[in-house]
Structures are given as C-alpha cells and as structure tokens.
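W.,

You were right to be curious about this one. When I first looked at the sequence I had no strong expectations either way, so I just let the prediction run and decided to look at it fresh. Below is the sequence, 172 residues in total, followed by the output.
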Amino acid sequence: PVAAANWTTSELFGALNRTGKDIENAPVSPTQAAELLGLIADGTLSSTLAKQVFEIMLETGQGAAAVVEEHGLKQTSDTGEIERVIAEVMAANEDKVADYRGGKDKLFGFFVGQTMKAMGGKGAIMVDIDARKREAAEQAGALATVDPKAPDALEQLAKKAGGPIRAVIDLV
C-alpha cells in the first residue's frame, strides 16, 4: 500500500502535471496502474523499468503487461545469466576488484553500475554490501549465507531462501 501510494503520488501525478491533465482524464486507468504496480510487486519490473513502462503506457494507452512484452522490458532474474555477467564485469576490472578487496569500498557502486549497464538495466540484483548488513538480513530471515566461491552458490542461496532470489554480488 505504501509503495502504491508513493508511486501514484510521484509518477502518476507527475505525469498529470507534465501533460496538463487532471485525474479524471488520466491517460492511464486505475486498472492499468494496478497492473503496473503488480508487476513491480512480483519482481517482473524494477522501479527503473517500471518508469519506462509507465512512460510508454502514457503515450500508447496500452496495459503494462502488453508494454513489457512488446518492448522486452522484463527484468532478468535468471541467476545464471546474472552470475555470468557479474563474472565478466569482475574479470574485465581485476584491478578494481583488487582495490576493492584492499579497502576501497566505494568501488562497490562501480561494480553494481557496470553489471546493470551490461544487462541493459534489466538485471534483478540484490546487493550484499558488507558483513554487518548481511548479518542483519540473516536475522530478519531475508538472506542466507553461502560460500560465494562455490560454483552453485546462487542455487544454494535460492534453496536456503526458500524461493526465487535475485543475485548476490559479494566481492569480499
């Protein structure tokens, strides 16, 4: 409910202001807006992709699912594909990996950005920044720890999490 309210306030009302329309003449119906919010909630869309879908919905009047399908805007949650891209980014930036492991924590954002860039903004990536946050997530039941060097680390994590996961970037 809070996410829906925030989305409506920022995106829908922002679009109405830009187009000079009022809520009664909104180019996106409540049903279409609910469909879009559902795709965000179920992980089909990231918030970034949802904004792109919403803009197309405003222009075309199409529903969210139709826009996602037609424009190929579905978020990639294939952990094998995400893991492959992460490995490529790390291999292409070995010097930065060494710097990160040497204590330059701010490089973490670089790796996330490069991974998202390589995936065209469509990668569903759950970022594991440091051990304290990992411990807090474990206590909340949100993340299970596995050996990140294990060849099947993402599959192990999915099993421990009891369902689909995004991916964990763990450079430490």
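Here's what jumped out at me. Residues 27 and 58 are 6 Å apart (CA to CA). And, maybe more interesting for your project: The chain has nine helices and two strands.

Coffee later to discuss?

I.
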